[in-house]
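subagent[fold] <- orchestrator: predict structure for attached chain, return C-alpha cells only, no commentary.
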Amino acid sequence: MQMRWNVLGSPGGVRLANLFYHNTTLTAVDLSANRLGAEAALVIGEALKANTTLVSLDLNENPLGEDGIRHLMTMLVINRKLETLELKSCNVGKLPAEVCLLRVTSRLWDVHLL
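subagent[fold] -> orchestrator:
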C-alpha cells in the first residue's frame, strides 16, 4: 500500500495504525514523508506486535526521533514477520548502532537508516 506524501501527521498515523491490527493481506506499506512523529510510532509499533502479514514497512522521512525509533525497536522484539524497515531521515540521532544490533536479534533482513 503506497501512502507516501499524504501529510497524515501523528493523528492520522494513529488512526491508520488500526489497519495493522486487522490486516490479513497487506505485506508492504509505504508511509514515508507523512510527518509521523513518536506518538504515531508508538501506536504503529503496538499494532505491529500483533500483525503477522506485513514484511516491509517504509517510514522514511518522518520525524520519528529517538523515542519513535525506540517504540519500533520494542515492537521488533515481538514481531517476527517484518523483514525490511526503512527509517532514513527520521532524526534517529545516536540510535543507528542500537538498531543494527537489534537486526541481529530479530528477523529483520534490512534496516535502512541513512
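orchestrator: received. Logging for downstream: The mean pLDDT is 79. The radius of gyration is 12 Å.
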